[in-house]
Amino acid sequence: MNLGDYELTILLLFLGAVLIPQIISIIVYHRVLGPLPIERRLISRRATFLLLIPFFSTAFEFYVVLRLSRSLREYFDIVEEPEMGGCGRVLGVSFCLFNAAGLIPAIGIAFAVVGFILWVMYMMTMLEVRAVVVTTLGRYPEALARCKAMTEAEAKGETKQETA
């Protein structure tokens, strides 16, 4: 079976429309996870390569977005950076929903266009969040020590109350 010019063009457009955004997503996720302390990561950098698997990536993107936003939220809680809010969680889940709805025949193209716009916004948000992570890394060791001390004090307080 030979591919004609028309079929080859369609195939290249499809690959460009699907693969290029996935590769950009993987790069952005790696850049965001890079400066994040390893013990705060709820998803490994290697796991993001699973986004290259067609159709599986549609569901797995939800997992990545939710785990990444939770990792970032826990990090910002430790360094006491409350202004960061949900760390792009709502925007990320929205883009995942619209991209998944983009698979619906006939009307899916409208959802896919909205999903693409949300994806661009989410990627930009993640890069902004990464910049905040980089600027707050200096506060992390002392903040982590303070959190551990508070946790230990709470644990000792609970054991004293249980024995009383």
Structure, described:
With 164 residues, the chain is mostly helical. It has one domain. It is built from five helices and no strands. The chain has helices at residues 5-33, 56-78, 89-101, 108-136, 140-163. The longest helix has 29 residues, at 5-33. The termini are far apart. 19% of the residues are buried. The mean pLDDT is 86.
Concise synopsis of the structure shown:
The protein is mostly helical and about 160 residues long. It has 5 helices and no strands.
Mean pLDDT: 86
How many β strands by DSSP? 0
Name the helicity range: over 70%
Structural class: mainly alpha
Q: What's the multimeric state?
A: single chain
Globally, the shape reads elongated
Distance between the termini: 81 Å
Q: How many discrete structural domains? A: 1
Main pleated sheet? none
Radius of gyration, Cα only, in angstroms? 21 Å
- What is the N-to-C order of secondary-structure elements (H for helix, E for strand)? HHHHH
Strand content: under 5%
Number of helices: 5
Low-confidence stretches: none
How would you summarize the topology of this molecule?
Blueprint: H1 5-33, H2 56-78, H3 89-101, H4 108-136, H5 140-163
Task: Please supply descriptive tags for the structure shown above.
single chain, 164 residues, mainly alpha, elongated
